[in-house]
Amino acid sequence: MLNTSDTLEILIEEFSKLPQIGRKTAQRLAMYITRQPREDVEKFSKALLDTKDRIRFCRICCNITEDEVCRICNSELRTGSVICVVEEPQDVFAIEKTNEFRGKYHVLHGIISPLDGIGPNDIRIRELLLRLDGSNGAVVEEIILALNPTVEGETTILYLSRLVKPLEIKISRIARGIPIGSDLEFADEVTLAKALEGRVTI
Fold first, then answer.
1. Could you give the domains of the chain?
2. Which of 1, 17, 109, 184 is deepest in the core (most CB within 10 A)?
3. Over the stretch 141-183, which tens digit does the pLDDT of each residue have?
4. pTM
């Protein structure tokens, strides 16, 4: 197939690299860009570059932030005694939409997956353990494991529970309200709220 524009083809290829974006969707997005005013495209490209340049990880919870410490960790309205452990930053967004959780978070940036070559040292488990020793002033009373209900998620939950149990900190997991094989970021607010309410101790 002959393409009519090398420039447009490059843009389509770049859009195709995005998760869950196939070739047809990439073509639609690229064509949409061609129809937009130049100032809107410049604003879009600036937003992309600003995101790449400014976003970093919170030194406490490893969530995304523009500052050294994120707004949730800095908030006096949040308790540091309960930490909700999630797989990715988008899981924090999903739980925050429920308006049910008043603790703080820890983002692992992945889960243990031996088949993919991802072990405990490849995700932010060490940073979590450092938060639990009480040296930062906050006494942690409960860890909520809110990982995706997959085989890898279950493996990570089992590994974390074995590490945390000797510290005599309560360990719970969100209740089974989320279908097996689905992702937290796609769950609706009611399902997530009920899952948090019905969490069980491990």
1. 6-39 (1.10.8.420), 78-201 (3.40.1360.10)
2. 184
3. 999 999 988 889 989 999 999 999 898 899 998 876 666 677 7
4. 0.79
